């Protein structure tokens, strides 16, 4: 089979652009203007607060990608602030080699932070939720103990002098502007990642891991890159923190501080840049405003967290997200436009048939599939039907690499289809939908669909970080293709809506649009008509036929017998994991055993 990577002519989307992570820009500019105007007050104390806020934000920008976007509970991030602060201070003080200039020491801290960021993050590849959170806390304790014990270098409990920045950054206001500069750059960098295919992939891994895998997203590589970036930014924040403090001891890196970073993102809201920024501002200002209650600050955080979780579960971001409030058109209908498929799927090399031979898979004592043979021909719709529990979804899961069969073989033409490796299926242009739609509720419909095209991205992480031309061009192409896919399935008008505001039937069509982004050679549909109205099922049938006419081989698992008999070229009937019958719809409709086991009289 040849992968269909031919480029197709794309036309620009007809709808307004969907908001990026920095839109609208004005709240960021307003906050920056306020912080930059602090020197006008002449109040050095407020200068200190504003500088601290900017430094915390530098750390939170990176951590936000981990916690807010990837959904990893990294609670002990103060450890990386500490690593950065000590690396910068030790190198600038010349405790291990000749003293380095402050900026060089800060650069080294960034590199050290990137390495430690990966070390802290690695457990996330195996551990989930609180188990991972515990490892980050453990790491924070280890770092704290090392800084205490390694007296020759770190000064132990007595501490070490922080680095001094060169002029003009050696004054209160100079340092403020330097930190604001870092904050702006970090905001820009992380927003670039967030709006790239890497950012969407992070959110997909968080909310719809199997759909992410089916789209070719490899979680380990993605997380390592992001942990590296977040580690570097946290360590740079640490270097700036040591400069601001002028003198650091292990006591400066408290658990409260770690909690502040984490809660800033939690109350800010997931998958947002502005929310966590506001969260950081609030949590930095809170102890100052409630100065008389300083000893209650931890309790204040806890109360605030409770209030926010109860009052606005989506955090500040959800509250200020206009997509949550904008009314969606009432009585909307899904009207697929098959002509959009001409541009989207284009002229492609027709793949060779996909064959399954003698596939066997048992779960414990249950033989879910027991010697299944199946051929999906390109340009045809192949129905896979059978009673509940007969092995239909398991067959799809074997084809899409989630399960490894115990015996039997799979091939596309003469090329064997390797068992396992669900992330590798996207590159082979095998796309699928799921029995229960897998969506990223907080992302727009357009972004959900764009995830389906992740595998076609060639621009690297660094190109995304700096928003280089190739990255921007790919994003434009991807967006144009996603709009075409949405037009093809009849959801063009909902591109900008949050996916969790869609109706069930719309989600089913959205999943098909996401699958179409692969320009699939084979499309596996798992009960796409479940929950659809009669008219929607009719439109779905026409859409599936149109897709197959463009050369795609469709494997359709369905319980709606009428749909199967209307649109399928071939039908295979499973019963208790075995093929009960296979043939044309006309043959199956009158097959005695099929009628008695499944169709009924
Ligand atoms: N992960 C699993 N662990 C254990 N048993 C499983 C697993 N997945 C499926 N099974 C079992 O394998 C058999 C086939 O299940 P499968 O979901 O493939 O059936 P199906 O034909 O898709 O059914 P339905 O129409 O209800 O979706 C069932 O007996 C089911 O209980």
TrEMBL record:
Q: What membrane topology is given?
A: Multi-pass membrane protein
InterPro entries, per this entry?
Answer: AAA+_ATPase, ABC_transp_permease, ABC_transporter-like_ATP-bd, BCA_ABC_TP_C, LivM-like, P-loop_NTPase
Q: Which residues form the ABC transporter domain?
A: 354-601
- For this UniProt entry, which residues form the secretion signal? none
User: What keywords tag this UniProt record?
Assistant: ATP-binding, Cell membrane, Membrane, Nucleotide-binding, Transmembrane, Transmembrane helix
Localized where? Cell membrane
User: Which GO molecular function entries does the Swiss-Prot or TrEMBL record give?
Assistant: ATP binding
What stretches pass through the bilayer? 25-48, 55-80, 100-122, 129-151, 171-191, 222-241, 274-294, 300-320
What Pfam family is a match, any one? BPD_transp_2
- Name recorded for this polypeptide: ATP-binding cassette domain-containing protein
Which species is the source of this protein? Roseomonas alba
**Source taxonomy:** Bacteria, Pseudomonadati, Pseudomonadota, Alphaproteobacteria, Acetobacterales
